[in-house]
Amino acid sequence: MKTLLALGTLFLCVSFLHSSPSLEGAANSPALTTRARHCQVPCGIYSDKMRIDMLMEDCATIEKAMTALTTMDGEESPSNNQMVRWIMTKDQHAQNIQDTVAAYWLAQRIKAPKDFVRKFGLDDGIDKYYAQLKSMHQITVAAMKCKQTTDKSHVESVRKVALEFSASYFSAEDLKHINSHHDGKH
Predict the structure, then answer these.
(1) CATH class as words, domain 48-182
(2) Half-sphere exposure of 21 (CA within 13 A, CB side)
(3) What are the residue boundaries of the structural domains of the chain, listed by start?
(4) Residue 73 in contact with residue 140, Cβ under 8 Å?
(5) Residue 182: CB partners within 8 Å, gap ≥ 6?
């Protein structure tokens, strides 16, 4: 019991340090930073297809973690250390998805239609914009649910909505490329 409590405490401390912007430099230390973040300069360097690939890789990792956790849960004496590691991995990849949605797609790539479109009653682009916002919200919520449970339906939701979003965002040529890599899955 003491070991499990210690592992839980360690997990909470690492999670807090990684997510706390108030700890000068601690959250951004190389020891705690596990993924590259996209700049918001704006640098003008975007690779939208790569972001979808990364999202699908995160989904594959989350699904693998869920499978491992479910298997361990059925064992007579599962390794608490391995369970904590799989939980941390699952949660980090779900957080990667949420961070990419917020910092890349919502902050930089999905653009609201120009004001004149709304002023003159033209709805060119507004439906597409709202559909893309809805997709990003659904991905964020499904990623959150991946943290809360080992129910693989949430991973499938992320994948499904990401592919639906892709259909509204990318050209036909780009979609062909994306689908050739994923066939609906990664």
Answers:
(1) mainly alpha
(2) 0
(3) 1-33, 48-182
(4) no
(5) 56, 159, 163
* pLDDT per residue as tens digits for the range 34-82: 445 556 666 667 789 999 999 999 999 999 999 999 999 999 999 999 9
User: Is pTM, for the whole model, over 0.85?
Assistant: no
Q: Which residue has the tokens 């990623």?
A: 143
> Side chain identity at 155, as an amino acid letter?
V
Token pair of 129 as six digits: 């914009």
Question: Taking Cα atoms as reference points, which of 185, 131, 121, 125 lies closest to residue 158?
Answer: 185
Contact between residue 51 and residue 161 where contact means Cβ atoms under 8 Å apart? no
Among residues 22, 23, 50, 24, the alpha carbon closest in space to that of 36 is found at: 50
Confidence of residue 157 (pLDDT cuts 50, 70, 90): very high
Please provide the DSSP assignment of 9-66 as one string.
Answer: HHHHHHHHHHH-TTSTTTTTSTTT--S-----S------HHHHHHHHHHHHHHHHHHH
Distance CA 23, CA 27 (A): 6
Residue 167's closest CA among 143, 184, 186, 145?
184
Task: Note if the bond before 42 is cis, omega within 30 degrees.
Answer: yes
> Which residues have a Cβ under 8 Å from the Cβ of 161 and sit 6 or more positions away?
135, 138, 139, 142
